[in-house]
């Protein structure tokens, strides 16, 4: 169960026994586990290296288990930070890939196949989406990582959305949690759901994605500049991966219009995600961009979390958050 944190099964069983029987040492542990003291000592060395046990202050030769909220909490936080860093690196690699695609096309001339189509501006992207909307048969899935929609975007979306919903097309859209503070987008959500559309929100989204009838996907060429245009793809394996990503996010998302739910530790999904992002080393400004929040909002949320943690500094807040299992 804890192998994802680097523990072998023997070490995990040893740790569990030590938590239940803090006075036991290698002989008692070996007897209970039905193994040798040498094997137990190897597990103890492993647990010591991972920071899950340490020498007793009263009896230096005896090892004692650290409580899970601190020991395992620290390992989990480190693992989550590593996963977040890996996700960021994959996003950077994706951006680099699209940049190389543009460079190759600039050098060799436009290259389009039956599975790839380049849309070279924001206008051409919008026009192509409008064309595809007229032909959609059953479903549109969309990820929109914006803090709120502009009046122009809302007007354009309402026209297209009303047309496809009138034909019985399923329309599901994921936005950032931060749009809950955007009145115009809230009004749009009420209007859309009244027509049969569905909108949910999550703390973060990887990029803008539109999938039509599970056959066509539209992705941005440049994640930071929508004016650079988009890539239209029809590759079945790419579409399947994007649909799987959407469904995973949709399952954990909260319907727009309902109040933000707190978990059993009193945290909203947005608060927990902010803690994870800042723990990974991101600045407040970068965290705000990721969550679609202003710098002021990020600092306000962190100030509230620090108050709840009774922490006087960000460092102390990080330690207390790990101890409480918030990370």
TrEMBL record:
Pfam families: GerE (PF00196)
Spans traversing the lipid bilayer: none
SMART domains: HTH_LUXR (SM00421)
Domain of life: Bacteria
Keyword check for Coiled coil: yes
Coiled-coil regions listed in the entry: 76-103
Domain (HTH luxR-type): residue spans on this chain: 260-325
InterPro entries: Sig_transdc_resp-reg_C-effctor, TrmB-like, Tscrpt_reg_LuxR_C, WH-like_DNA-bd_sf, WH_DNA-bd_sf
Keyword terms: Coiled coil
Protein name: HTH luxR-type domain-containing protein
């Amino acid at each position: 169960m804890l192998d994802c944190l680097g523990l072998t099964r023997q070490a995990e069983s040893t740790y569990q026994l030590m938590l239940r029987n803090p006075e036991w040492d290698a002989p008692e542990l070996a007897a209970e586990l039905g193994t040798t003291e040498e094997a137990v000592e190897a597990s103890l060395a492993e647990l010591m290296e991972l920071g899950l046990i340490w020498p007793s202050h009263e009896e230096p030769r005896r090892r004692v288990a650290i409580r899970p909220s601190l020991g395992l909490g620290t390992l989990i936080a480190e693992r989550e930070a590593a996963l977040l860093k890996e996700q960021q690196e994959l996003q950077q690699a994706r951006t680099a890939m699209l940049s190389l695609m543009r460079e190759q096309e600039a050098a060799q001339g436009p290259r389009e196949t039956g599975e790839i189509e380049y849309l070279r501006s924001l206008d051409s992207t919008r026009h192509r989406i409008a064309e595809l909307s007229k032909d959609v048969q059953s479903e549109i899935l969309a990820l929109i990582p914006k803090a709120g929609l502009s009046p122009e975007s809302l007007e354009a979306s309402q026209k297209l959305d009303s047309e496809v919903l009138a034909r019985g097309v399923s329309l599901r859209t994921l936005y950032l949690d931060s749009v809950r503070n955007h009145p115009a987008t809230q009004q749009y959500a009420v209007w859309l759901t009244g027509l049969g559309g569905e909108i949910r929100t999550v703390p973060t989204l990887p990029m803008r994605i539109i999938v039509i009838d599970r056959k066509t996907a539209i992705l941005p060429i440049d994640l930071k500049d929508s004016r650079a245009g988009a890539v239209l793809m029809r590759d079945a394996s790419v579409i399947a991966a994007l649909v799987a990503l959407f469904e995973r996010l949709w399952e954990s998302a909260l319907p727009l219009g309902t109040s933000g739910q707190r978990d059993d530790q009193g945290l909203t999904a947005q608060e927990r995600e902010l803690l994870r992002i800042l723990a990974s080393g991101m600045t407040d400004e970068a965290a705000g961009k990721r969550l679609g929040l202003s710098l002021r909002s990020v600092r306000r949320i962190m100030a509230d979390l620090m108050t709840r943690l009774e922490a006087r500094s960000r460092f102390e807040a990080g330690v207390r958050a790990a101890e409480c299992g918030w990370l």
